[in-house]
Amino acid sequence: AEAAPAPGGGGCPPAGGGSVPVLFCFSVFARPSSVPHGAGYELLIQKFLSLYGDQIDMHRKFVVQLFAEEWSQYIDLPKGFLVSERCKLRLVPLQIQMTTLGNLTPSSTVFFCCDMQERFRPAIKYFGDIISVGQRLLQGARLLGIPVIVTEQYPKGLGSTVQEIDLTGAKLVLPKTKFSMVLPEVEAALAEIPGVRSVVLFGVETHVCIQQTALELIGRGLEVHIVADATSSRSMMDRMFALERLARTGIIVTTSEAILLQLVADKEHPKFKEIQNLIKASAPESGLLSKV
């Protein structure tokens, strides 16, 4: 598990001493077990994983706390703590920080372009318009040096990304059969980008691949911005209810112009004029935003 920095103590207990009973608590669960006398932080983490591995989200950060009788409450595990007597411990997932409030900066942002493929053209409502907006977003990403990750749903049967969308410079273009874009290769690519905090997500279909991708990403502690004028479905009802559901979970539903101008943030930004020209060049009035 990716845990908070060790409060101290190694994982190797001193020789001898037998075992000590410990109550291991996580969420609503509490399971009695035992560890060797002198067990430290690393061994305790291993024990939590052996007991609760199927419930622990491996992508969260955690802190181990000890129940202190003198305070009658849990405290963070003291530095250098070693188990020497019967005790009660709990593993606490740290909450996602909400202090960003939707702020975007190029250095901490990745663009996800989801399944903008040729075979979807006749079926997806306003497909031509979301292609136009998607291309504008990818041009903006190149201007601002923002990494782009692209997926294609079963391209053998559904075709490649449409020709109108220029994937030059994309960090990753990946075929998939899973609906969510969060594949092992995508997770590995994200891990290679330092300081990623926000994902700008667009493509098709809103209620399937976009929705499942967004939910997996926020579950991993990333902030997700869905571009409403660059995502669609075969059914406008499916699209509308998906966006409403996602907004209620804390995902930010926004527009391409808002995204691009938020990323430059200042008229004096060296790329402002080029971004402004992108916005002026293509702004389809499709009616998509009236159906958010």
From TrEMBL:
Belongs to the isochorismatase family. InterPro entries: Isochorismatase-like_dom, Isochorismatase-like_sf, Isochorismatase_domain. This is Isochorismatase domain-containing protein 1. CDD domains: YcaC_related. Residues 109-257 form the Isochorismatase-like domain. It holds the Pfam family Isochorismatase.
